[in-house]
Amino acid sequence: xxxxxxxxxxxxxxxxxxxxxxxxxxxxxxxxxxxxxxxxxxxxxxxxxxxxxxxxxxxxxxxxxxxxxxxxxxxxxxxxxxxxxxxxxxxxxxxxxxxxxxxxxxxxxxxxxxxxxxxxxxxxxxxxxxxxxxxxxxxxxx
Length: 142
Prior knowledge:
mainly alpha; Ferritin; about 140 residues
């Protein structure tokens, strides 16, 4: 079983990973509609990250953040997969894959959650709902 602090750290890392993925593709050429959706998703990840930090501060916890090396390697992997040129379908495919990984992690966390901290559970569910909605939004760009 995971405790509330571990779940909150996982939520934080997942939102940070989502932000890295989106920022890695935002400087490429894409249709305005896709850009708008990605920017909206980026804001949602940022809001969930801010909420995770706020909950941690209220509880006096210091959360483990996404390792800078992981951030760098993820950014490089996205850029390599795009190969210098992008198309909306490829970007949507990569976003769906990333959201699916985030969704799987969120589901695992919810199933392993051994605490009754309702605010942490609600935030974890909010992230899961966000990942699910992001996948649906990207399907139209495949």
